[in-house]
């Protein structure tokens, strides 16, 4: 009898443990009640292994990474606002039914200010990077708004239409962010975005991962003179919307790895950022010349990958969707529906960065050869690259 009792206790204990586990699972699944979370709150937090500056690996929690990055970076992230004249609103008849009989009063246009995008400081002298499409209206006046709500007028805007980038110059001493590298990014890498969500909620922080690399998007307006394709952008599921445009995409060390640029209109959790190495090249160009002096081919195109080419019995390359009047492409005879297969002797392939990457490596005034496929036959044309339009 004495031998049976300990065994009975063990069996009863096992039954209680199994019943507790099943009960918790059922409560979680059916009633969305998590009874164990209140007892073991730390079990919900997943530790991440990160590398510190000395090369050692430390175990930290995701929330501490995010709060640390935000603390380091938020002071250098700005909101961009536009100031414009707006006609005063007209009286509503139902709110003022006798207004139509009153003597008309001449009213002055109202000056309104609206947050429209984000940016971040790249030089302590007051240089701020954002997207070109955020400050596309050359007739408007812009301000940058700091974390402490200080407003500073933008003195000068330098636009780089080939990369949908712009540099704003303000008269202030500001703290710049550290620029990282986009050369060794990996799919699944943790990222953090900071910006003014929807042009309304300043200093919004979102997190996610790199969902894809080497994506191609059209990051401009074909009617605004900017039609070059961005072929090598970063795809992320960190929430990005029009208000985040121009803000930084950061790694776990608070280094900028991209500039948030666009969001897929017909999908959720799909945003895009321009790799920071493209920004660094543009900044080097700017610091050397005082402007963005970029070569411009003058086409809007879509990359044809190998699989699509095989299915349609056409060569791999860049399919010309539109040719801009007066551009280098137009004067050389390039036409809509041509497929550019070689650019200055190098094959045009999506996995190698695409046509935009190849153009960016050239200089204004360079004479290059373009091999293209048209109606089943190959042709070669020669052209001189023009400077990209600045507005």
Strand order of the largest sheet: 7-6-3-4-5-9-8
What is the CATH architecture assignment of the domain at 178-288?
A: Beta Barrel
Low-pLDDT stretches are: 28-33, 220-228
CATH topology of the domain at 178-288: Thrombin, subunit H
- Specify Rg, calculated over alpha carbons: 28 Å
Number of helices: 7
| CATH homologous superfamily identity of the domain at 178-288 | Trypsin-like serine proteases
* Main beta sheet: 7 strands, antiparallel
Number of strands: 24
Helix vs. strand class: alpha+beta
Strand content: 35-45%
The level of helicity is 10-25%
Can you tell me the overall shape? globular
Overall CATH class of the domain at 178-288: Mainly Beta
Mean of the pLDDT scores? Answer: 78
Span between N and C termini? 94 Å
Structural overview:
The structure is a single chain. A hairpin with a 5-residue loop joins strand 1 (47-51) and strand 2. It contains 7 helices and 24 strands. It has 391 residues and is an alpha+beta fold. The longest helix is centred in the first third of the chain and has 28 residues, at 4-31. A 7-stranded antiparallel beta sheet has the order 7-6-3-4-5-9-8, with no helix packed on it. The chain has a 6-stranded antiparallel barrel with strand order 11-12-13-16-15-14. Strands 18, 19, 20, 21, 22 and 23 form a 6-stranded antiparallel beta sheet that branches. Among the domains are: 4-43; 178-288, Trypsin-like serine proteases (Thrombin, subunit H), CATH 2.40.10; 295-387, PDZ domain (Pdz3 Domain), CATH 2.30.42.
């Amino acid at each position: 009898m004495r031998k049976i009792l300990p065994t009975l206790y063990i069996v009863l204990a096992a039954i209680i443990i199994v019943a507790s586990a099943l009960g918790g699972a059922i409560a979680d699944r059916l009633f969305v009640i998590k009874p164990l979370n209140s007892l073991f709150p730390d079990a919900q937090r997943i530790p991440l292994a990160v590398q510190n500056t000395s090369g050692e690996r430390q175990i930290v929690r995701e929330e501490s990474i995010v709060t640390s990055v935000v603390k380091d970076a938020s002071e250098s992230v700005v909101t961009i606002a536009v100031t414009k004249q707006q006609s005063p609103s007209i009286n509503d008849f139902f709110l003022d039914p006798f207004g139509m009989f009153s003597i008309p009063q001449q009213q002055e246009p109202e000056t309104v200010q609206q947050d429209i995008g984000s940016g971040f400081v790249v030089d302590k002298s007051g240089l701020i990077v954002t997207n070109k499409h955020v400050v596309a209206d050359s007739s408007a006046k812009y301000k940058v708004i700091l974390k402490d709500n200080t407003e500073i007028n933008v003195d000068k805007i330098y636009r780089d239409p080939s990369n949908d980038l712009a540099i704003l110059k303000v008269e202030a001493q500001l703290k710049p962010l550290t620029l990282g590298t986009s050369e060794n990014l990996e799919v699944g890498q943790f990222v953090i975005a900071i910006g003014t969500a929807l042009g309304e909620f300043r200093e919004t922080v979102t997190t996610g991962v790199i969902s894809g690399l080497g994506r191609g998007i059209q990051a401009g307006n074909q009617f605004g003179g900017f039609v070059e394709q961005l072929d090598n952008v970063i795809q992320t599921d960190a929430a990005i919307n029009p208000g985040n445009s121009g803000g930084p995409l950061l790694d776990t060390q608070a280094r900028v790895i991209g500039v948030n640029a666009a969001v897929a209109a017909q999908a959720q959790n799909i945003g895009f950022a321009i790799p920071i190495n493209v920004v660094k090249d543009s900044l080097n160009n700017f610091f050397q010349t005082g402007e963005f002096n970029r070569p411009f081919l003058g086409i809007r195109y879509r990359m044809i990958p190998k699989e699509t080419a095989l299915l349609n019995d056409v060569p791999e390359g860049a399919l010309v969707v539109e040719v801009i009047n007066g551009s280098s492409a137009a004067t050389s005879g390039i036409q809509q529906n041509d497929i550019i297969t070689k650019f200055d002797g190098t094959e045009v392939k999506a996995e190698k960065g695409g046509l935009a990457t190849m153009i960016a490596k050239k200089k204004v005034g360079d004479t290059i050869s373009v091999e293209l496929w048209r109606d089943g036959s190959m042709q070669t044309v020669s052209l001189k690259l023009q400077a990209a339009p600045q507005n």
